[in-house]
Amino acid sequence: MAFNLPVEQIEELRNTKYNATVVELKKAHSDLMIVRVKPDKAIRPHRAGQYTLLGLGYWEGRYPGCQEESIPEEELTKLARRAYSLSSSILAPDGSYIKAEENDWNEFYIVLVRETGREIAPALTPRLFNLEVGSRLFMGEKITGHYNLSHVKPDDDVIFFSTGTGEAPHNYMALEMLRNNHQGKIISACCVRLGKDLGYREVHDVLMKKAPNYKYIQLTTREGDPSKKRYLQDLVRSGELESILGSKLNPAKTHVYLCGNPAMIGAPFKHLETGVRTYPQPEGIIELLESRGFNADLGHGHAPGNIHFEEYWS
Ligand SMILES: Cc1cc2nc3c(=O)[nH]c(=O)nc-3n(C[C@H](O)[C@H](O)[C@H](O)COP(=O)(O)OP(=O)(O)OC[C@H]3O[C@@H](n4cnc5c(N)ncnc54)[C@H](O)[C@@H]3O)c2cc1C
User: Fold this and answer.
1) What separation in Å is there between the alpha carbon of 121 and the centre of ligand 1?
2) 38, 146, 216, 221: most buried, per Cβ within 10 A?
C-alpha cells in the first residue's frame, strides 16, 4: 500500500529503482520469513557467508503493528536499504544438496523488527513484511563481506553460534562445506526466544541424518520453564559444547563463527598502542573463547584469527 505520493509517481519510482522480484516466500510466522529474490541481471560470483543489500522505497506501506514512523517529505522518494546475509535452505526438495551456483535467486532469512527501542522507527523490515510472490524490490548487485570460510581447512572443526536470523550465513557456509565433503565436525548452535523462531528447524533435522559430521543445537530463552532458559555462553561454560564435539576445544584446528546480536558476540575493543583488549559485559562468546586460547579476527580478515564474527547491529 502506498501513501502520500501520486500513484503514477510511485509506479515510475518502482520502475526505475527496483531491479529484482520475489520468486518464493515462506513465513515461519507473522514476523519471520524465508524469501527468495531473483535479480533482473545475473547473480555475481560470491562466497557463502557474504551479504548484499535489499531495499524498498519509503513510499511503500508498513506492516501493521510496527512503530510509527515520520519521514521528511524529501525522503519519501528514496530507498530504505539494509544489509542481508545470503542464506540457504541447504537441501533441495529431493533431499540433495542445493547447487547454489545454478540458482537465479538469492535466499534471505529475515525477522521483522517492530520496534527499535529508540525514537527512530525501523525503516525496512516493516516494509519487507508486506512482500508477496511477484513483488518488486531493490537488491544490491554487489555481494560482499569478509565473513566466509576462506581460512578453514578441510579437516578443521567449525562451530557456528547465532542468534535468530544470524543463522542465515551459517546455513550457506554449512552447505558449501558439506558439498565439498568437509572432514571436520560442523556444529551450528542457534539461540532464539521461542522454538517457532527456528525457521529452518526441519531442514536441520533431515541434515543431521544425512551428514554424520553435522550437528544443529537449538537453544530457547522464553520457552516453558524460565529456569531452563539457556544462552550460547552457557553451552561453552558448562562443557556441553565439548561433549557434543567429542573432544576439548582445540584452537589449532577449530574455527568459530559468531553472527547476530552483538551482546552474544561480545567483540572487544582493542587499545591501539598497548594492544590490550577490553571486553563488553556481560561476557560474550569472544571473551569466553579467548580465555581458552582462541583469537578473534578484529581486522576484518587482514590478520585472521580463528574467531570470525558478523554483528547485525551496533
Ligand atoms: C552484514 C549484515 C547482515 C545482516 N543480515 C541479516 C539477515 O540475514 N537477516 C536479518 O533479519 N537481519 C540482518 N541484518 C540486519 C539488517 O541489516 C537490518 O538492520 C534489520 O533487518 C533491521 O532493519 P530495519 O530497517 O527494519 O530497522 P533499522 O531501521 O535498521 O533499525 C535497526 C535497529 O533496531 C534494533 N534491532 C532489534 N532487533 C534487530 C535485529 N534483529 N536486527 C537488526 N536490528 C535490530 C537495533 O537497535 C537496530 O539498531 C544484517 C546486518 C548486517 C550488518
Assistant:
1) 12
2) 216
